[in-house]
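Q: Got a minute? One more chain.
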Amino acid sequence: MTRKARRRALAAAGGAAILALGTRGRALGQEGGDAPPAEPAPPAEPAPPEGAGQPQPETETPPTGPQAVFDLLDGPVVVDLELARTDAERTKGLGGHAPLEDGDGMLFVFDLPARHAFWMKGMTFPLDIMWIEEGVVVHLEHDLPPSGPQETDANRPIYSPFVPARYVLEVNAGFAAGHGIVPGTAVAFSDV
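A: Always. Here it is, folded:
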């Protein structure tokens, strides 16, 4: 029980005790001034210092949110995800985004599997891009550099898988190699 819930319970119990004492005369069938004098209340105990003798509040674990969990020989590897589900979110992607923290990524969720193509327009840091279908990495591009100043939409490299996929995951460059993720690696999503 949290401290706040304990305080509410104590306040409710105290209020019920005061209500019971205040209606004592009426419960005996007597009216206001005719009520017998109330028994003296026992001396009040001083309140303990804040938090003394009481359990400490439970620490709440923050919600985990969407994640990708790779099933690897050395154990699972978890990636915390930002989701791109709408056309506008997928078009913007990580363009202009601050560099990702280790273990973070962006998952592009499409309605149907296809050979979804990507480029590095607007990127300020390098990426690994993984195409995922039916719980398996089906294609992987390593260490893709951000677009250079000389690149235009006409000459910018485009990356696409050899097979259709419904999900595309972008993570920091080197993440896949660093964890031994290759095509065929199993991955599961939660809260996606």
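A: The first helix runs from residue 3 to 22.
Q: Perfect, thanks.
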